[in-house]
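Q: Give me the 3D complex with S-adenosylmethionine.
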Amino acid sequence: MSRNRNETKESVLCPYIGTMYTHFPEKRGTPRQPGICSNLVAKLVLNSNIFTNPEHALDGLQEYSHMWILFHFHKNDSTHTRAKVTPPRLNGHRLGVFATRSPNRPSPIGLSLVKIDRIMENVIYFSGVDMIDQTPVIDIKPYIPQYDSPNVNMPLPYCDENLVEENSNSPAPDTYSLFNISAVNDSQPDENGISQVTEALDNLNVRDMDGEEDEERNNDMGGPTLNIRQSFPDSRSLIRMGEREAPDGEEEESERQASGVSITFGTSPSSRDIRTPAWINNPPVPILTVYFRERALSQLQQMGVKGEQKKAVIENILKEDPRSVYLRERIENSNYVFRIAELYVSCRFDDRSHTVTVFQVFQENVVQNEQ
Ligand SMILES: C[S@@+](CC[C@H](N)C(=O)[O-])C[C@H]1O[C@@H](n2cnc3c(N)ncnc32)[C@H](O)[C@@H]1O
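A: Here is the predicted complex, encoded as structure tokens.
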């Protein structure tokens, strides 16, 4: 059953803390998750209407490699949300909206994990983009694997090893009965409860991070500041090796520099308990093979070295099939055009051979007559 958003009783007003500037002026062709084009850069500019000096609110964030961004799906066209949605990767199969990452949800809030490349004053440059240009940001938080990933052990100050060992043989407490969850009356909620123009690909390139702003910022803060490096507990007490080797890509996440020592956070046996539905790893839709017509290749070649990078970005977006189920059913054999910053990419999908052919990659101001 769908419900009009205006009818919902409970709501909370979240101020926008900033705006993201990405290469994707529209939903069409925007990667569905940050990992699809993990090297693609974007920037988040903090507003100055919340803090007089918004850069103060970022002090310390430079110590982290990744952050969560909570943002508003402000370009959702539908005023109605449905309980069941059709994720593109499930090829038409319907699922409960809360079992998916669909942007069409009762509270239109997106959550993306991105890599922090550089922080300059009130601007965060990051990589990994699945938001459209000028998406408003509700909040950002540092990614802390010890808190955010069930794969990673808590550092010892937070985790009493003796307690873990003592309890390891006893069954986990039944927290449902412990807190009498079933006594909660669901039907009676608690009343008190709670363009600017897209910057071109070339301009968003990331420069080296040198940390020069640290000292300046500390002085700027006036009052006493906490030196995070010094306040870290003895690094030995943080190290705890896991029982299995980190899978590919996990290593970068699990290695941190603190007190000048590289710390490896191990994985715990509980990682076996992490479950995701089979379709996450084995979706019923294939990875597509991407072909480029001669014309598209020569257009890319004319862009020099950047052309190669742009080709890789286009390939990554297309091989994951950016079409919605609705579009997939309707536009087979007709042109699909999407934009990446100033570029228009024109292509055609062939769902029988699981291929997509790129015909042209052209700039906005260049008139294209033929295909
Ligand atoms: C599937 S959602 C995932 C977002 C986030 N990683 C999450 O899991 O909540 C990403 C898609 O949302 C759409 N999208 C991105 N930014 C949007 C915005 N500001 N308004 C509406 N739709 C947006 C694009 O089609 C993009 O491919």
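A quick observation: The domain at 11-73+108-154+200-224 is CATH 2.40.30.70 (Elongation Factor Tu (Ef-tu); domain 3).
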